Every structure is written in C-alpha cells, then in structure tokens.
Amino acid sequence: MPLLLPILLALACAPLAYVAGRWRPGAAAWMGALGALAALGALVYEWTQETTRLVFPWAPSWGLSLEFTRDGLSGLYASMALTIGALVVLYSRAYMPHHLAEEQRPPGDEVRFQGLILAFMAAMVLLVTVDDLLLLFVALDLTTIISYLLIGFDREDPESRAAALLSLVLTGATSVVFFAGAMTLGLQYGTFSLPLVFERAAQSPASTGALVCLAVGALGKSAQVPFHFWLPRAMAAPTPVSSYLHSAAMVAAGVFLLQRLYPLFAPATDVRHGLLVIGFVSMGMGSLMALVADPFKRVLAYSTIAQYGYALVLVALGSEGAPLYVAAHAPCKAALFLTAGAVTQVTGKKKLSEVGGLRHALPVLAGASAIAAAGLSALPLTVGFFKDEVFFHALAKEGPAFMAAGVVGAGLTLAYTLRLWWGLFGGPRPSAPAAPAAPPLLVAPVVVLAASILLGGVLPGLLVTPARAAAETMRGEPSTLELAYHLDARAENLLAVGAWGLGALLFATRNAWTPALSRVLNAASHVGAERGYRLLLLQLDRLSTWLHEKEVRDLRDRVASVLVPTGLLGLTVLGVTPLRDRFTVGTVGPADVTLVMALAFASAAALATLRAKGHLRLVLLISCVGFSLAMVFAFAAAPDVALTSVLVETIFTLLFAGLLALLPRERLKLAQDEAQNPRGRDRLAGAVAGASAFLLSWSALSHLHVDRVGAQTVRLAKAAHSPNVVAAVLTDFRGLDTVGEMTVVVAALLGVTSLLSLNLSRKGKKQ
Amino acid sequence: MILIASLVVGLLFAVGVRMVLERELVRVACGTVLITNSSVLLILAGSFPERGEALNVHDGGPVTDPVLQSLALTAIVIGFAVSALLLTLVHRTQRAHGSLRTDRLVEAELKRVHAVEKEEGH
Amino acid sequence: MISFVPPLSRLLLWPSLIIALALWLKGGASVGGGFPAGALAGLAVLLQYVTAGRDQTRRFVAVRYAAPLAGVGLLLVVGTAFLPVLAGYAPMSLFPRPDQQELGVGGLHLHTALIFEGGLMLIVFGLVVTVIDRFALRTDSDAEEEAGP
C-alpha cells in the first residue's frame, strides 16, 4: 500500500486546495503546495520500503490488471513533477490575481486554476507510476484533457481557445495512435502488464508497426517534428502553465514514455534511427527558431522543442543519460519560464524588443535567472553541465559527424540563451520610469530553482544515485553512469569548449545574421507541418459539412441508411452461414387454430394501418394490433404477459388519443393530406427490412435448443418461495436485469417530465 | 407454426419500418410501436412449439417457458415507457417547430444552423 | 346517457385499486405482479382524469406526487437488490433464503420479493400517472391559449 501513497496524496491535492480556496482564496495555493510536498515525502518514504510493485486484478479473465511500480524512472519523474508543481502553484499565488485582473475575471477563479494545476500534477504522478500499457494510455489522456483546460484557461480569449484546441487535437490524436500501438502489443503478447511484455518481447521482438505507433504518441506529447507546432501556440496560456506543462510535465511525458518502453525499442534499430533523425531535426529547427523569435515565451517554447530533441537523440542512442538529461533540463527551463512571467507582470511587456536593462530593477530575479540560463546552456558549476556531458559522451561514441552536430546544437543553445537573458536584463538602463519591484513570492520559486541548479552542479554526487536508478530501469541493466568534473582533454570537454566558443561567437555577431535568418525561417514556415495540418483540418471540415447536409436533408434517408444495410447484412449472414436444416416449417395442430387466427387478425390490422387515412383510425388500428397480440399471448398460455399487455395497450391507446387531442387540428389535417405519397424506395426499404427480420426470426425459431433454461427455472421456483415462475424469474433469477430495466423506465419518466415542463417554462417567458 | 409466427414478425416489422420512413411524426411513432410489438412477439414465439395449456395451468402439465414470458413482460413495459417518451417528443417537437413533418423540421434546423454560423462569423 | 358514467367511474376507482393491490400481493403465487398492478392502478387514475377532470383527480395525494412515488419505487427496487450486499450476500439476494422457512398467512407470504414488486408497481404507476397528468395539463392550457389570443 505505501506504493500508492504518493499517488493518493497527489490526487487529494486538488480537492483539498479547492476546499481551502472556498475558505479563503489565498489558502488554496499553500494547501496545494503542502499536499505536493507531503506526496514528495511519501515518495521518499516509499523508497525505504521493500515492495516495488503492486498489482490489482481487474478483469483477470482478459488478463487486465491495474499495476503500479516503484522504480528509478517513476521516482525521478514523480519527484520532478511534484517539486516543480509545488513551486509553480506557489508562484501562481502571486501571478494569477494580476493576470485575472487583466482578463477582467473574478479573483475566485485563481482557485480553479490552482486546482487544475494540481490535478495535472496528480495525472503526471499517475502516469509515471503505472506499469501497464492500458493505464499508461489512460493517464496520458488525463494529462491531455487537463492540459486542454489549462491552456484554454483564458476562455474569453479566442487565441488561447484555439491554442488549447490545437494542442488537444494534436496530443489527443497522437495518443490515440499510441493506444493503437499498445493494443497491438497487448494482442501480440497476450498481456498489458509491462514487465511481462518486456519479458516476452525478449523472445519475439515487437512489430515495427506497433513501435512506430508508440513513438508517434510520444513524439506528439514531446512536441517533436512534425508535431511540434502546438507548443509555441500553447504559449497563449498563463505563464505558470507554460512553465509547468511545457518544461517539467507534459512535454516530458513523451520522452518518459520512450524511456519507459525502451526495452521494446532496444532491438528495433530502424525505429531508433528514425527517432534519431527526428531528434536532430527538432534540435536544429527549435534552436534556429529560438534565435529569432521575439516574444520571450516563444523563445523558451522553441528551446523546449530543441531540448527535447536532445533527449530524443539520447533515447534513440540508448544512452543511460537520457533520464538525467530531462531531469536536469526541467528546473532550468521552469525557472526561465517563471522569470518570463515575472518580467511580463512587472513591465507588462511580452517581447524581447520591448524590454531591456531590467537587472537594475530586478536584481534578484536577474541573478537567479542567470544561473538558470547558465544551466540551460550547460556552463560548469550548474547541473546543466552534466546534461551536456552525458550528451557529448553518447555522441563521442558514434563518430565525428555526430560530434559536429552536437557542438552546433549546444552552441546554438548557448547563443539563444544568452540572447534571451541579455535581452531581458542586459543592455542600457531603460529611460522609462523604473519598473516596480516584483512581489517576493514571484521571485522566490525562481531562486529556489536556481539554488537547486547550483547545488546539483557543485555536488554532482547527489544526482548519481537517482540517475543511475532511472537508467537501470530504462535499459534493464546495471548503469555505470558517473558525474564528475574532469580537468583533462577528453572528448566531452573539448566538445563543450567548442560549443561555448561557437555560442559566444554567434552571440557576439548576432546583429550580422539575425535579419537574414529570420527572413529564411519566415519563408520556410509557409511550407511547414503546421500548414499541412491547417489544410487537413479545412478539408475535414468541408467533408463533414457536406456529409451533414446530405444526411440531414431528409431524415427518412438517415433512417433508411441504417435499416437497409442492416437488413442486407442479416440476409448475407443467413446466406453464407452453413446451417444444416436451416429452416423448419413446424406443425399446426388443432390446438394452434386459435393462435393462428389471432395472429392473422394482428397481421390484417397491421396491413390496414398502411391504408389508414385519419389519425384516429390509425391509432385504433395500432391498438387493434396490440390487443390481438395480447390475445395471442393469452392463447400461448402466458397469462402474465397477456394481462400486462392488455392493460398497457389500453393506457397507450388513451394516451395516443390524448396526444391527437393536443395537436392542433388543422395541422393534423394538413399532415394527413400530405402524407399519402409514399416513395418507391420506402416500400423497398420496408420490404428488405421485413424480409430480413422474417428470415432471421425464422432461422432463430428453427434452432431452439431442446434443453431450455426455462425448465430449470420451473424446477427452482419452489426454492425461491414463488409458485408463479414468471414472478420468480423477474424478481429473483433475473432480478438485476429488472433493476436495470426499471432505471430505463425512470429515465423515460424523467424525460417526459423535463420535456413537458420545459415547454411550460418557455411559454411562461413569452407571457 | 414456426413459419407462421416468423411471417407475422416479419410483416409487423416491415409495416413498422415502412411507417417509420413516413414524413409525418405521428406515423413515425406508430411505426416504432409496431416494431416493438414485433419484437415482443418474436420473444414469445420461442415458446410456441411447447407451450402450456391456455387458461388452464395445472401441476405437471406442459408450461410455457417462463424465462421468455418474463422477457416479453419486460419488453412490453420498456416499450411502453419509450413510446410514452416518444409521444411527448412528438408533441414537444410540434410545439417548438410548428410542424409535424420531418422535412419541415430539417429545413428549420438548417436555417437555424446557418443563422448561428452567420452570427459567429460577424 | 352521460349522466351515469361519471358516478359509475367514480365507483370503479376503489375496486380497481384494490384489485391492483391484490395483483401485487398475489403476484408471487399466481398471475399478477408489479407490472400489471401498476398499470391497472394507473388505468384507474386515468379513468378519473377522463371523467372527473384534472383538478378533481389531483385531490388524491398519490396522484399529485406520482413522480416522487416512482423515485421511491426505484429506491425500493435498488434497495432490495443491493442492501444484501452490505450484509455480505450477493446482490439481488432475496429473503427468506431458499433453505429458510417462510412466514405467511394463507395465500400471503412475507418475502422481500414483495418489496421488489412493490417498487416495480410504484415506478409503473408513477410513469403512467405522470404522463397522463402532463398531457392533461397541456390540454387545459392549450384550450386557454387557443381561446386567448
């Protein structure tokens, strides 16, 4: 049970925060952060326990169970999600009131926002802790849905609504692809439990199609090319969202999936080569876009794409540093996002070209974010240094071309990070009146993150154990990962120095190449994946409109288009099923004469309804059919059915007559006059459906099993203390069915009540 | 007997479908009632070959399959509830759109959709 | 011609309700049960609506609160089905159990199936009466509306 404690605590955060928010809006964030820290404590406690797996059987006959694990990956990612979640929630306490005031929304909405952030945190913890493919998909979709609500939090703003929808469609669609892959694997190996899947995959490798599906799901989540474009758009969200979802949580989920499922990918070199290419492309494209983007949140978004490209490259190479890379990147990126939000709140500006020289007004923030920026660009004494060290270490094994690409990528990272920090804080002191100081709560999370970045950089030994544990989980073999500073001329150090040099050079000469680069990228954006996506959506929209108009033009076609194919299908099934003695005619004895007569009466009444002109006559004929059937039931020795049928039929006839009294007379007459022109295809549809029903029921009635359940019920009725066997079946043997049926009746009752009272209230308004 | 019962089931179903495909809502409702009737008949027809004595139940004699009877009973009650809902729907539709004909309803709906789209466009 | 119908139908109300009750109580032993009982009771009320009108019929408490009665019925049904779960039985366990002696006087036997059937009866009754009541309400107000503008 201790295994579930962090999840349960994380799940409890959002409701607790909500309750606290009802008491006092400001308390929600503190409550939530407290809950997150408690969950973190439970996570640490859980590591001192013995159990590492927990399995709840769910549907054992289908091999379905709910499985949770405690391993290196889950520990690393869960603590990352919880720590940054707590900081972001506290930050939002300072950020949201201002934001809501700008959006002209009630301050109480802050609680809703924090609740959503905490719910997202819980979904993330769930995602990293589960250990079977189905739950993985469920948790993945949970994050997608909550992120939709978070990105679209400014619901009055069409831009943010569109961004939320875009991210929902893209990450939702790709996660459906992931589901397809998971199902394929589940069918291939007969289980969804990950350890079992891995075990069986060791004998027979997973199919390439399934792996590609899984990878697509992960790429969509991690905003890699060609699904990258939702991420910059999602920057329309409030900054805490960007900072959390797009650094530590949602985007990390994709790479996490690949790491969790790495044992499946390990033997599939083709798929891994594809991932490698995608990683390098995302890296290059994201870095270049980050070099020219002007809104500073967009710079960070493109940088995220690029950084997760690095992580993807590491996974594709099977490097043991992949989990460490994500973990080291998260605090740096989160801190920079929080900085961007603080700058926007203090100055009201969102673009690099509009701000500058803020180091005088915001010295603490400038210092803390400088550390974060150094971490992002992998300077020594920060934890970021080690993310590039493992990166270069992995590339150095692959050859010079890889090393060159790595140096360029890292150089670009340094260049855009410098550009960002210098654009915000560097430059001459602005001539405008000094910006007001930022609230302490807005700066404190950045400082905490910066402190942790420095701590990790100075004492890398702290990181070795979790990084090794995660790498072991990922690769399934003991890890020899080492983190230390080496002052010698090994390849990693040379590559790092090369990257710094390149970055500094690029930054120094930025005025020379920025305009040209931005022109080229502008031109390139016209042929990108985003345009393809737009075109696809447009065409789909058109198709759906066309279909809708076509379908809705005549409701009868809609009905016929369901009934006729179903009828044809039934006939086909009968045609192809090889059943010996498919149809038996049956015998008609003297005892059956009354039954046949009643049936004939029902048929005659039914046929007569087709010719009935007046509505009243129609209704009477329908009730005639019903009463003759009641007669049939009576002759068939089913007195309960016959009794109920007579009563219900009486009520129904009276109700129908009542309805006719309710409808305006002239309209009824009009409808009557116009109705009498049946189309030929309606007759055809009726004939096909009827023939199919006839043949199917004939076939069914010809194959009644000799040994009936009914005989059993007759025997058991005594034990059920009910001489009336029908009553015993209804109340006892099939009692649960009756309960379900009664809920249907009550639902119909509610429908009737609401439909008619709705009518009343509308009329009341008119008067 | 089997043939006759299934013929009647098929006939009721065919007439029901034919009426559901009418333009006018009252007839559509009648059609669904007929379809319900045909399914109840089908359920109970399973017991026709070895049914009990009508109106004369005594111990040890042949019994009509009680499971089928209770299924038919259930079907009747649910059919009634759904038909009642349908009748109120017919009434409500007529109040809302002022017509009993499905093609008119579609026209009205399309008109409203277009109006909403126009509004959103502006 | 008209004159003897309303008194006669008023006379019919109580006998039909009693027959409905009998159908319910005897359902376990012979023809009857919750469905026909509810339908018959509904029919009795429907007759009152037709002859006496809505206002006269709504004097009866059971008619005014027909929809809540159906809710009570659903509670009874669900309660009979799932309360045994709390005591560790399978859902839909009825009492007395098959191996237990049942208590009873004459044709009437005490059995939780009776409660279940009573729930069914209330639900069907509630549905019938509510639909009738709504239709009757609409008829009245429509008549007013057509007379009004």
From TrEMBL, chain A:
Residues 131-413 form the NADH:quinone oxidoreductase/Mrp antiporter transmembrane domain. Residues 601-665 form the MrpA C-terminal/MbhD domain. It comes from the Bacteria. It is a multi-pass membrane protein. The chain crosses the membrane at residues 29-47, 68-91, 111-128, 133-151, 163-187, 243-262, 274-293, 364-387, 399-422, 442-465, 559-579, 591-610, 617-636, 642-663, 684-701, 742-761. GO terms for cellular component: plasma membrane. InterPro entries: CPA3_Na-H_Antiporter_A, MrpA_C/MbhD, MrpA_C/MbhE, ND/Mrp_TM. Residues 679-756 form the MrpA C-terminal/MbhE domain. It is found in: Cell membrane; Membrane. The keyword Transferase does not apply. Keywords: Cell membrane, Membrane, Transmembrane, Transmembrane helix, Transport. This is DUF4040 domain-containing protein.
From TrEMBL, chain B:
Keywords: Cell membrane, Membrane, Transmembrane, Transmembrane helix. It is a multi-pass membrane protein. GO terms for cellular component: plasma membrane. The keyword Membrane applies. Signal peptide: none annotated. The keyword Nucleus does not apply. InterPro entries: CPA3_antiporter_subunitC, NUOK/Mnh_C1-like. The chain crosses the membrane at residues 6-21, 28-48, 68-90. Pfam families: Oxidored_q2. It is found in: Cell membrane. PANTHER family: ANTIPORTER SUBUNIT MNHC2-RELATED. Belongs to the CPA3 antiporters (TC 2.A.63) subunit C family. This is Na+/H+ antiporter subunit C.
From TrEMBL, chain C:
Belongs to the CPA3 antiporters (TC 2.A.63) subunit B family. It is a multi-pass membrane protein. Keywords: Cell membrane, Membrane, Transmembrane, Transmembrane helix. PANTHER family: NA(+)/H(+) ANTIPORTER SUBUNIT B, NA(+)_H(+) ANTIPORTER SUBUNIT B. It comes from Corallococcus interemptor. It holds the Pfam family MnhB. Residues 8-130 form the Na+/H+ antiporter MnhB subunit-related protein domain. GO terms for cellular component: plasma membrane. InterPro entries: CPA3_antiporter_subunitB, MnhB. The keyword Membrane applies. Its main location: membrane. It is found in: Cell membrane. It comes from the Bacteria. This is Sodium:proton antiporter. The chain crosses the membrane at residues 12-29, 35-53, 65-90, 110-132.
